[in-house]
Structures are given as C-alpha cells and as structure tokens.
Amino acid sequence: MSLYVIVAGILLLVSFAGLIGYCMKGGNLLVGFVFMALIWCLVGRVPYRTVIDTVFQSSVESYGPTIAIIVFGSWFGRVIVDTGIAGFIIKKTVEMAGDKPLVTTILVSLVCTLIFTSAFGVGSVMAIGMIVLPILFSLGVEKRVAVGAYMMSVAGGMYLNLGYVNQLLALFPNMTYDNTYLRFAVIATIIHVIVMLIFIIYHFRKSGQGKARAWAVMNSGSVQQIPAVAAIVPFLPILMVAIFKWKPVPAFLIGIFFGLLLTRNMTSYKLAIEKVQKTLYDGIADVGLLIGMLYGVNIFSTAAKQVAPILSELLGGVIPQSAIIILIAFIICAPLGLFRGPLMVFGSGAATLAILQATGFFPESFLFILFLVPPVAIVANSCPTQSWSMWGISYAKLEPKTYIRTNFPWSWLIFAANLLAGYMIIAR
To answer: CA-to-CA distance for 137 and 396, rounded, in angstroms?
Structure first.
C-alpha cells in the first residue's frame, strides 16, 4: 500500500466524519454533499474533465427519470388531498368505527398506511395530518401517541410507495420494482403495521386513553361530499404497476385523471385546468427541497465512485466480508440512522454506502436492502429531522426528545425485522 493511498484514505475518512457531524447538526444537505464531492475529488486527484463532465453533469442528468417519478407522485398526492378524497376516506373510517376511540385510532392509522402507499410528498403528509391529528386529539389520544401513530402510518406505506422506492433504485441501477421486490414490500408493510398496532394498543392500555366520543369528532367539522367510488383512487397507481406492469409516471397520471374525474373537478374545462395547475404547482413545491437534496446525494455518490479504489485498498482488510456480520452491525447500530447519521443514505449514510461499495465485498441487492430500510423504519418513524416529523412535533407542541423516546424503541424493532426479511427475500 503506497503512502499516497494511506494519506488520501485517511483524509477521505476524516472528511466523512465531518460530514456525519454536519448532517447530525442539521446542516443543509445539498451544500454539504456538493462540498464533500469537491473535497473527495481533490483528495482523490480526479481529473478536471471528469469532475466537470461526470460528477457534476452526468450525475444530475442521469437522475432525470427519478425526479419525474417524484414530481408525478407528489402531484398525485396533492390531487388526493385537494379533491377531498383523503379527508372523505378518513372521516368515513371514523364514522364506521363508531363510538370506540381505540378502534377509531387503529382504523384511521390503517387507512393512512394504505393512502401513503401511493401519496407522496411532505405537503400531502401535512395536509392529511391536519385531518387526522385533530381527530385523534379529540378522541382523547395523548399527543405524543397520536403523532407517533400517524408518523408510523405514513412510514408504513413507504415500502410500496413508487416515489420513495425509486429514490433508492436510482442509486442501485440493477435493482427494479419487480415481483421479488413487491413480495418483500408487502411483507415489510405487514410487519410494520403489526408493530404499529401493538404500539397503539400498548399505549391505550398503559394510560387509559380515549376519553372523548367518536361522534363528537364527526360533529367538529364537515367533510367534502364526493362519490364513494373515488375512494379507490389512492390505490390505482400501485395496482397498475403491480398487476398490469405499468411504469410509474403513466400509473400516476391515470390516478390523477380519475381523481379529478370522480370528484367532479372536470365538469368544465376552466375548473379542470385550474385544478390541474394548482395541484401540479403545489406538488412540485412540496418536493422542491427534496429534489435539491437528492441531486446533492447523486453528485456525491458519483464523486465517491471516482475515489472507490483508494477506499477499497485502504479498508479492504478492515471491513468484514460477511454479509451477516454487516447485517447484525446495522441492527445494533440502528440509532445511527437518526439525525441523518451514517445509516441514513439521504444523509451522511451516502458516504457509508460509498465505502461499502468500494470494498466490492457485497452484492448490490444486499446493499439495497441495507439502505432502503433505515429511512423508513428509523427516520420516517422516529427522527425529528424528517420534514413532516418536524411539522408534526411543532403542530402538537411536543419536545423532540419525547417524540424519539415514544417511537424509537418500536422503530428499532421494525428496522431489525424488516432488514432480516429483506435479506431473506432479496439479498441472500
């Protein structure tokens, strides 16, 4: 091993530690990733033209298909919210549950999980949350439990969500949203939902929550009247992809079309155009910052590939070659997924992925599972740095540490179970 490799490798690892600290302190991720890409290219002596043409140009161009899916997914989410479909489904669920707060909480959480198998974007989460959380609060559910259950229901839909999964697929070009992945996603969703239900029942039994009456909730606000058939709209995209093998964009478009049609927003040309423009504009605004961050991740990931030989030579004899050992290490180190830590690929975990890829020890399917699960099971479930979690904590006036203490033990359980499931189904 040459002196250059040793010095350069140490500098790369030191800068990686700096990225972890930066992310965990809440630094701007786009700025952090672009800066890190420059540092790694300088340390790795990457040729100038490669930096310009590949790291900063081709990496962004290649992300175009993923950005399209994210935009159309967020647009679809806005259609579900703004046409009243989400509110209609949730409030009809409350009516069906009757005068039983525990049953109402469980059914609302299950319905939200189903909605978020297709709905995407922080705006959709916030808008639906402004329907769900007041209902749960009015039922007498403790605020930390209401917020925790809602965030768990949002996360539960993400394994099947085309918008989320395609963010990961862009980092793993040989992985696809196919029948094998769908089998894992369904099992992961079931595991997630089971733990969510135990979470709800445990807290109800522990503190005797649910003093209000469900009928009082239904009298507290009006629900937009739409045809009952519109309730199928949130599930159209996933059905078109799973059953008819459609691509995500046309699947979202068919959902958008029927969402507007079945809610009578296409009764006139003017109304249809206004609704299309507003939902598209709001949908893009919802994911604008996310798209910027994802561009940063891809720029950094491309830079990391350029310095992979250095990391591989330096760490090849240090990192265990056993997938089982790495899997166990991830489970034990689950808290490192919080605060954009080294297990969170949309944070400093982008560098962790680059290091593991550089060793060449592990198949792409294994790394895909390792980095697919933490953003759902850990971050979306219990991390206050997640944008919609920050909103929920603020809305309910909770302390971040209260939210973490309430949700994280359950998140850890989901994380371990779904990592193992993913390994058995996809990566073994």
So the answer is: 9
Residues 107-136 as b or e (16 or more Cβ within 10 Å = b):
bbbbbbbbbbbbbbbbbbbbbbbebbbebb
Residue 220: per-residue pLDDT = 45
By the 10 Å C-beta count (0-12 exposed, 13-18 middle, 19+ buried), 65 is classed as: middle
* Integer Rg of the chain from CA: 22
C-alpha–C-alpha distance, residues 230 and 326, integer Å: 45
pLDDT score, position 215: 46
Give the span between the Cα atoms of 385 and 378, in whole angstroms.
Answer: 11
Measure the CA–CA gap between 283 and 72, rounded to whole angstroms: 8
Q: How far is 233 from 80, CA to CA, in rounded Å?
A: 8
Residue 55 phi, psi (nearest 5): -65, -45
Residue % of the chain over a pLDDT of 70: 96
> How many whole angstroms from its chain centre is CA 263?
28
Q: Which residues of the chain have pLDDT under 70?
A: 1, 208-224
**pLDDT at position 8:** 92
What six digits make up the tokens of 310?
A: 């250095």
**Dihedral pair phi/psi, residue 47, rounded to 5°:** -55, 145
